Amino acid sequence: MLSVRLIFVFSLVPLAEFQTKEDVYCFALAKALYSVPTPVTVGFYAPWGHCKNLLLQKIQQYMASESTKKDQQELQRTGKKQRGSSGRDLLKLLFLMIFYQPVLTEQQKQRKNVQHVFIHFSAWEYAGSDQLWAGLITTLCDGIENHFGLLPMSLYRAIRRKCGIVQRHGDQEWVTKKYLCLPLWAAVILVTVVAIGVGILLLVVGIPVGDASGDAIAVVEGIGATAVGVSAAAAIRIAIMVVRNVIVTQKTQLERQMNRTDLSAQLGFMSSVKSEVRTVTRFLQFMEIFQRRKLQVVLEITHLDRCSPDKVVGVLDAMNILLSDYDAPFISILAVDPSIIVDCVESSMYMKGMANNGYEFLNRIVTLPFSVPRMDCDTKLRLIKDITERRKQQERDLEEEVGFQQDRKIEANSNFLSVPCCNSANHNAENPGADDSQIPLVVRDLRTQEPGPGGYGKGIRAKDLIQEAFDYLLDDSLKEYMTDNVVQMRRIVNTITITIRLLASNVPRDEVCPKKVVDWVLLANQWPCRLSWVLQCIEDEEQRSSLGCCQGSPLPQDMFLWEVYEKYMEELDMLKGQMEKLLELDQDPELFHNFLCGRFRVKEAIFYLPYTVNLDLSLKRQMELQRGSHSLKRTKKVNRLTACTLLGMTVDDICREMDTVGFKEENVQEYKQRLRDHNLNGRALVYSDNNEIKEALSMSLGEWTLFSIYFLGVLPQASSSPSVASSVPLYVRQEAQKNMLGLRENVARGSRLSLNISREDLQEKR
Predict the structure, then answer these.
(1) DSSP state of 560
(2) What average pLDDT score do residues 59-88 get?
(3) Where are the alpha helices (DSSP H) in 435-587?
(4) Do 41 and 324 contact (CB within 8 A), yes or no?
(5) In what order do the strands lie in the sheet with 294-302?
């Protein structure tokens, strides 16, 4: 029902009234939350870096605007103005809280104006506590006290048992409290008058004794003093409780209990927390009648996806148990990345056997799921423009500050040169060993100083290159490839600045292309795993070509990087089972093809690699380990081919290798012809079934064993017949078959995890 209402509100909002699409979604959610019955838990789902706090602020603004409009409508309908909690309203609140009880009238039930108390809870601030969920309650108490004031909340805690809500018919909002069958305010006046009278009587008459009239006066004084004393004792007790609550807030008391570790203290702490939640709920109901509006607490929970799994589950339990009573006026907004929360729930020790499916557990807690939409291209460009403008403003402020300091240095140097000559002569006479070369002859303006011949200008030239790069970053051709993560946007802008300054300090001006720098930084930021793979392939080919024996040749310098990636795509597809977590760092593979195709060549990648500061080198190290580039010499000594080498071999290459295996000379030509007849290249040998290969080649048992070990890296499988026993020991077979079994597993996993688009799709796009 809530989702249908939200979609209906969204359809009624004209897009022209808002600046961005996100504003429309925030307005629709704010309208839905304004009229939703409490308690409710909103799942505000968005990945990391998608401005969740900014969107929550927009929702808060829309809800506050709606509350103001509803208050005006309610004032016109009833003619009664809403009250606050400061100034005269504060004095009136304290008076009514002491002497009266609120009445829940039909008019109060029918009110449509709602004021929301927004409380922000950052779970990361309480991550070091043993009971993270208790920090949620302490933040709630602290937020209520800050909004309504510490004195009203402290007074209510002291007399809450006598401030219960009364339900009566009629329009009367308050009924007086009774004391000795008298209104409390009248009883207080009476006790005050009695106290004054007893005091005057004591001052005038004293305590007479010895006669009947004196005894009567003494009895009257005793009765009056007793009545005044009992009333004063009750008033003093309440005053002491109020002062204690003001000095030691409820948040401080809960934090003290939260830090205790004994079991009895923890059980008592749980009871205190539940009691505090009920107290806050009753206080809000009291304030609703006083302020003539309905009150709801909006608890914004953020940064929960940064905490450990057990603490995440604790906060979710607190939301589900403590804040979900049927009369609790709480709206909990859980602003998290759902994928991380689901993993935390499934891996938590507290949820073993209870929540094997984290999504089901999250759905039971969340009443209204709200997924933040993907950022459109126009919003991306607007955010990038804001970030670049802020960056340029900071640089201008820094330049002004540096220029002011340089002006002061120039002024000091000018004052030094304006010293009279006689003083200089006297100075030299007093210091005959002074060096005349230390006296400056020319004053140079540091702001107009030209760069030396050995360095590149760090000022105006680098600044112009950075400005050109920022202008290109706002080009429409890049908005499709730009990330929708604001943190990543800032990284890209800062990395562009650093990269251009590094290039400007080390290479000539004509070799620095700001547009190429922007493309390279964007490539390394969006697809770090695939770029690291391409760079590692280029490095491996250079290493193989530099070995003594000819094992390969370096890639052509004018070869495009996409062609390099396409050449080694099958090898990456075979190894992606071990690099699944690394591949998750990359963005859309199809966009990778569109972005990389025709942009960079091998020589450009080699040129920009030393200045690539936003690419984690540990990713490239993982590629190196997977490809086995650190053990080229060791694999050469092994009398067999690796699967990676076999993938790139043609039928002719395999036929040439047949001469080195050790087959009988009279059979080699027949085997070569059968390889050509069946077109058994390297890819066919890797992906085909071994029994089918054996049947196609029709080899004898011994020669098939040599072929399997050298080309397939595995011994022939044992015969299924029980009468035939293998002569090879079991541990030898298991060791020899380990590599090929791993290869089969990777291929099987690869069928479920798509690495990239198919070659047919690429040919169609070309």
Answers:
(1) B
(2) 88
(3) 460-473, 486-506, 514-526, 528-545, 561-567, 569-575, 580-583
(4) yes
(5) 114-122, 294-302, 330-336, 40-45, 368-371
User: DSSP per residue over 437-462, as a string?
Assistant: GGS------GGGPPPPTTS--TTHHH
Beta bridge partners of 294: 114
Phi and psi dihedrals of 562, rounded to 5?
A: -65, -35
Tokens encoding 640:
């067999």
Mapped onto helix, strand or coil, the DSSP state of residue 285 is helix
| Structure tokens that stand for 119 in this block | 């409380």
CA distances from 314 to 127, 266, 356 (A): 11, 14, 17
Letter for the amino acid at 16? A
pLDDT at 416 over 70: no
What is the reported pLDDT for 499?
92
Q: Is 689 exposed, middle or buried (0-12, 13-18, 19+ CB in 10 A)?
A: exposed
- The residues near 536 (Cβ < 8 Å, ≥ 6 apart) are 620, 623, 624, 627, 629
For residue 472, which phi and psi values (nearest 5 degrees)?
A: -70, -30
Residue position matching structure tokens 């900014």: 54
Measured distance CA(346)–CA(349) in Å, rounded = 9
* pLDDT surpasses 50 at 277: yes
Calculate the CA dihedral of residues 160, 163, 167, 168 and round it to 10 degrees: 170
Burial of 343 (0-12, 13-18, 19+ CB in 10 A): middle
Cβ atoms 708, 714 nearer than 8 A: yes
Rounded to an integer, what distance in angstroms lies between the CA atom of residue 506 and that of residue 438? 33
Hey, what are 78's tokens?
């009833």
pLDDT digits (tens, 9 = 90+) for 113-137: 899 999 998 888 877 766 777 778 8
Residue 370's DSSP bridge partners are 44
Longest dimension (CA), the chain: 150
Angle (deg, nearest 10), helices 88-99 and 184-204: 90
Q: Note the pLDDT tens digit of each residue in 214-267.
A: 555 555 556 666 666 666 666 676 777 777 766 766 667 666 666 555 544 555
Report the pLDDT value the prediction gives residue 117, as an integer from 0 to 100. Answer: 92
Give the pLDDT confidence of 328-364 residue by residue, as tens digits. 889 999 999 888 888 888 887 666 666 677 888 888 8
CA 753 and chain centroid, separation: 26
Give the residue carrying structure tokens 């760079």. Answer: 535
Cis omega (within 30 of 0) for bond into 514: no
Please check the confidence at residue 630 and state whether its pLDDT lies above 50: no
Nearest one of 26, 50, 36 to 4, comparing CA atoms: 36
The CA distance from 665 to 655, in Å, is 13
When pLDDT is averaged across residues 612-633 and rounded to a whole number, the result is: 74
Q: Which residue has the tokens 């307005």?
A: 27
Q: Three-state SS for 330?
A: strand
SS3 content of the chain, % helix, strand, coil (to 5): 65, 5, 30
